[in-house]
Design a protein that fits this description.
single chain, mainly alpha, 5 helices
């Protein structure tokens, strides 16, 4: 799977999560009471999509960083830019999820995945920045 297709799929999942999160916010109290351990609520979906996007950004950023260190020229530029795009999107998604969550882990609000998206998004951003800086320096 290409990086473009992976990012497009993750972006589509995030946009679908926006549409699903609005109606679910109106029924937050009812949703929290009904949410089981394996129930996929809108908030969990949103947080999981953001976490998967962040994880893809980390993987692509790490590959770009490895490629930029051994190739002369623009070896990791595309991957670095992809990580720089995916990282902040995941950070914003995870932060928004944590900001609107009205409970802790296990309440159906996606708190764990939101925190993971925040952390992995920051890592993806740093990896993308390092890879871009290194590819510009060697080029």
């Amino acid at each position: 799977m290409s990086v473009r297709r992976l990012l497009a799929t993750a972006a589509a999942a995030l946009l679908a999560g926006i549409g699903l999160a609005a109606p679910a916010a109106a029924h937050a109290s009812a949703r929290a009471a009904e949410a089981g351990a394996y129930t996929l609520t809108a908030a969990r979906f949103w947080a999981t999509a953001a976490a998967l996007l962040a994880l893809a950004g980390v993987v692509v950023g790490r590959l770009a960083l490895a490629r930029s260190s051994r190739c002369i020229g623009h070896g990791g530029t595309k991957g670095a830019v992809a990580a720089l795009v995916a990282g902040p999107i995941a950070v914003v998604g995870g932060t928004l999820n944590l900001a609107v969550a009205d409970g802790g882990p296990g309440t159906g609000n996606g708190v764990v995945a939101g925190a993971g998206a925040l952390l992995l998004g920051l890592i993806a951003t740093v990896l993308g920045w390092l890879a871009l800086a290194r590819s510009r320096r060697t080029g």
